[in-house]
Design goal:
The protein has eight helices and six strands, in the order αβααβαβαβααββα. It is an alpha/beta fold and 260 residues long. The chain has a six-stranded parallel sheet with strand order 3-4-2-1-5-6, sandwiched between helices.
């Protein structure tokens, strides 16, 4: 996406950290940034609060990440919001998250339109509560005409389940005579993934210092650059995001080849 450099300068003008903007190379930006938002519960517990308070606080960081992505000219921002394993959390926490997803998305629709953002979802939405499912569908309908950055929320998502789903679809096509199994290649598999039509992530950011992928985009992250921040997600700011992009630009991406 094209960057409005004046808006970018204004956005990062506050504080000493704004000086880092001078090191940014706008010709070498990642097209797709993925974020594993981690540490909401621990952020709250260290402050003597209920875990739910961390999830609420994390919404502000997510809103800022969306705006930061737009200002930086990122084509796709994808975030891991709720995994297939998260259903195993205490019921009251799951209920809070589902309600928070619905209310937050409705509240943020004006921002998505203002920034020309188009929504997309990764995961099986049919398992969600009716209210949350209907709000998500409204978000998809409402933003489908926007042609700026794609903002993808991974909800009820697990990468292994995604790959099984894709394999089953290819097997069904093969059994029905629509497809010769010998013709199946990586491109065909990718077309059956939730990310079909999107570029693979160039940069994966994970907050809270954890060093694992947690069953997120295992196929798509094959050659992504990884950046781990020690900050809990509610403390992750636009300047932390900028630092992650600068770290990305400092690396030589070889994709399995030999460094020049």
């Amino acid at each position: 996406m094209q960057v409005d450099e004046e808006k970018l300068r204004q956005y990062f003008s506050r504080g000493d950290e704004g000086a880092k903007l001078g090191s940014l190379d706008l010709s070498r930006m990642p097209r797709h940034v993925s974020i594993i938002m981690d540490g909401n519960g621990r952020w709250a517990q260290e402050r003597g609060l209920e875990r739910s308070a961390g999830h609420v606080a994390g919404v502000d960081s997510l809103r800022e990440a969306v705006t930061t992505s737009v200002r930086l000219g990122i084509d796709v921002l994808s975030v891991y919001a709720f995994s297939t394993e998260n259903w195993n959390r205490p019921q009251h926490e799951v209920d809070l998250l589902m309600h928070l997803f619905a209310t937050t998305l409705l509240e943020e629709l004006p921002l998505f339109h203002q920034e020309n953002v188009r929504l997309r979802f990764f995961g099986d939405l049919t398992a969600l509560p009716k209210e949350t499912f209907e709000v998500f569908q409204e978000g998809l309908r409402s933003t489908q005409g926007n042609d700026g950055m794609v903002f993808a929320l991974a909800v009820n998502y697990g990468s292994r389940a995604e790959l099984v789903r894709a394999a089953r679809e290819l097997a069904r096509m093969s059994a029905g005579g629509e497809l010769d199994p010998n013709d199946i290649d990586s491109r065909m598999l990718e077309e059956k993934l939730y990310t079909a039509g999107l570029p693979d992530p160039d940069l994966l950011i994970r907050s809270s210092g954890e060093l694992r992928l947690s069953n997120f985009l295992l196929w798509q992250l094959a050659y992504a650059e990884l950046y781990v921040s020690e900050r809990y997600w509610p403390d992750f700011s636009r300047w932390d995001y900028l630092q992650a992009v600068l770290a990305y630009q400092s690396r030589n991406r070889r994709f399995g080849g030999i460094s020049a």
